[in-house]
Amino acid sequence: MKIKNKIIAVANQKGGVGKTTTTVNLAVGLAQLGKKVLLIDLDPQGNATMACGTDSRNLTVSACELLMDECEAKDAIIKTELLDVIGSNTNLTAAELQMMEYEDPQTILKQQLLPVVENYDFILIDCPPSLSILTINALTAAHSVLIPMQCEYYALEGLTSLLDTIERVKQTVNPELEIEGLLRTMFDGRNNLANDVAAQISEHFGSKVFMTVVPRNVKVAEAPSFGQSAIEYDQLSRGAVAYKGLASELLRRNHA
Fold first, then answer.
1. Angle formed by the axes of helices 133-141 and 92-99, to 10°?
2. For residue range 163-199, what is the model confidence (pLDDT) as tens digits?
3. Which among 12, 41, 141, 205 is most buried, taking Cβ atoms within 10 Å?
């Protein structure tokens, strides 16, 4: 189903699965295809912010101030060459604690985005590696969830918790929330276990699994240290090509 001004949360409480890498590269891939994109970094580590070329340590207005209602979304937006960014840093941890005192802490981000959502074709939210109030805010604000998964033995471990959380959010505050898709990341086709797990994921989730598979690639790992996405760092690398393919596949799925 096509949704205009679509908000997608990129989430997996398991760390090290390529969640931030996926958010950044998908955002850049969509922007290069002519879409207006806003990337929101909801991880206190601020890695997505850094990968977009902004030093998270020097932010004066960020996701922290936005969630603490100390600024409006338009004031937190940083303009880059390809896309817009709402950055984050370690201050977001303090916001997370304060949010728990609010009457409806899970809806703060959704309310704050209302004045700007129509300015974008896609809003991508990079969630922290946990099922915290920050992730719940992203799920409440989003139309769908994209789940990056590494093809390893523990790939499915914890996925049940995430799916249960998504279902609870659907039943309570966001009945329209759907799974956008599962993305297999850091894939090494020479590894029999990786192939077995990839097949298992496809068997369990069928059409919800993206056809695009992101390979393990050194250029993808190097790019953030240069404040760039893999697509900008080396557009011909296997990882960059995969993420550009993911952006195209996402547009086809959404008839956009």
1. 80
2. 999 999 999 999 999 999 999 998 776 777 778 888 8
3. 41
Could you tell me if 148 and 10 are in contact, meaning their C-beta atoms sit under 8 angstroms apart? yes
**Are the beta carbons of 146 and 181 closer than 8 angstroms?**
yes
Residue 118 predicted with pLDDT over 60 = yes
Closest CA to 116 of 145, 76, 65: 76
Residue bearing tokens 């550009």: 244
Helix-helix angle 159-172:133-141, to 10 degrees: 60
Residue identified by tokens 């939210």 is 125
pLDDT at 3: 73
| Domain residue limits, the chain | 6-253
Give the closest residue to 52 by CA, choosing from 76, 7, 6, 84: 84
d(CA 129, CA 89): 15
The answer to whether 51 and 10 have CB atoms below 8 angstroms apart is: no
State residue 102 phi and psi, 5-degree precision: -80, 160
Contact 163, 128 (CB under 8 A): no
Give the number of other Cβ atoms within 10 Å of residue 244's Cβ: 21
